[in-house]
Design a protein that fits this description.
Elements: H1 6-13, H2 17-24, H3 32-45, E1 60-65, H4 67-71, H5 75-89, E2 93-98, H6 101-106, E3 118-122, H7 127-134, E4 140-143, E5 153-157, H8 159-172, E6 178-181, H9 188-203, E7 213-214, H10 221-229, E8 237-240, H11 243-255, E9 265-269, H12 273-277, E10 283-286, H13 289-305, E11 313-316, E12 319-321
Parallel strand pairs: 1-2, 1-3, 3-4, 4-5, 5-11, 6-7, 6-8, 8-9, 9-10
Antiparallel strand pairs: 10-12
Helix pairs in contact: 1-2, 1-3, 2-3, 5-13, 8-9, 10-11
């Protein structure tokens, strides 16, 4: 006779396996009504909880991401790969699912979500939809996105400090007039990077030329080239919110016969194939994506083990990778270089 599992109880009651586990362990993460229903179902189905334990090898996680995120083979591709590798090491079954945009309009969540023990949500999408996922009480970790209304464990980059450090490096190497490129309405991370940029401008008393502050931009070569062609006097350096924009900027400047870094310097967030393909290579401030992915899984496992602990936001401090896209003053501090 087949042994009854927690998943069998979950399927019988149409709830998550994690809720069954909490109920059987008399944890406060589920209601008394749910606990009673689980105990009744366990008895009805012939499940003996005293003889069974939840094993990591039995866990099933699902990762949700938009088409945009999953199509980015550089940043998000590396992050997903790290998550997959960590799951393999922990013997966790991982399903990766692209979010259908229609779900954002209907605010519907997948019918089979209760089959999973944990949820990962990668990058920004729709906060109301994410709330619906969180409301299922299935342990959830949000990666590279946050919002004050989302009560969930979250893994983030320390974006504001990273941008400030990048600007500090430029200042230490003699740059004063520094432009900004990035659509700050597209992502909370980009807005935070802009705040770090502004904080550095104020801290170092740098000029703030509105013509050189591009905060609304479609992330395409045509849109960026059009914006840049409208600028009369180029700044001494540019800070870009991501490596894709930096690579396009790099191409534009070289097509206009600017020398990098002699005429104009470039620094950006994220270390991807774009920063490495460019010649000269682009200096960047970046998060260790392998660490970030592994930390996401570790945090989800911690939440499953301790479902009633306060929610936490873990911020990873990015590091600077100095390449050839900025000039280097001999007197610049070595502490900002790697």
């Amino acid at each position: 006779m087949k042994k009854v599992t927690m998943q069998d109880i979950a399927d019988h009651l149409n709830i998550s396996k994690n809720s069954v586990s909490q109920a059987l362990r008399n944890k406060s993460g589920v209601s008394q009504q749910t606990k009673e229903a689980v105990l009744q179902a366990a008895e009805l189905l012939g499940y003996n909880y005293s003889e069974r334990k939840v094993k990591k090898s039995s866990l099933k996680f699902i990762l949700f991401a938009t088409n945009f995120a999953l199509s980015q083979t550089s940043f998000f591709g590396e992050l997903v790969s790290s998550i997959q590798n960590k799951c393999m090491k922990e013997n966790i079954e991982l399903t990766i699912q692209e979010i259908d945009p229609i779900l954002f309009e209907t605010l519907e969540i997948p019918n089979d979500l209760h089959h999973y023990d944990g949820v990962l949500i990668l990058s920004h999408s729709n906060n109301e939809w994410i709330k619906k996922i969180i409301d299922t009480n299935i342990p959830t970790v949000i990666v590279d996105h946050h919002d004050p209304t989302l009560l969930s464990d979250t893994i983030l980059t320390k974006n504001t400090d990273g941008a400030f450090s990048a600007m500090s490096l430029l200042v230490e190497n003699g740059y004063k007039n520094i432009g900004f490129i990035g659509d700050i309405s597209f992502s909370p991370s980009y807005l935070e990077r802009y705040r770090g940029y502004k904080r550095a401008v104020e801290h170092f008393e740098l000029p703030f030329e509105k013509e050189n502050i591009i905060t609304e931009i479609e992330e395409s070569q045509g849109a960026l080239f059009t914006k840049l062609n409208q600028i009369d006097d180029m700044p001494e350096a540019w800070f870009c919110v991501n490596s894709g924009l930096a690579f396009m900027l790099h191409s534009f400047l070289q097509s206009r016969e600017f020398n990098i870094p002699e005429d104009i310097g470039i620094i950006c967030f994220d270390d991807t194939e774009f920063t490495r393909m460019a010649q000269p290579k682009i200096t960047n401030v970046a998060t260790n994506l392998e660490f970030m992915g592994a930390l996401s899984i570790s945090t989800l496992l911690e939440r499953i083990d301790e479902p009633n602990q306060p929610f936490i936001h873990k911020q990873i401090v990015p590091t600077i990778n100095v390449n050839e896209s900025i000039r280097k003053n001999k007197g610049a501090s070595a502490r900002l270089t790697t």
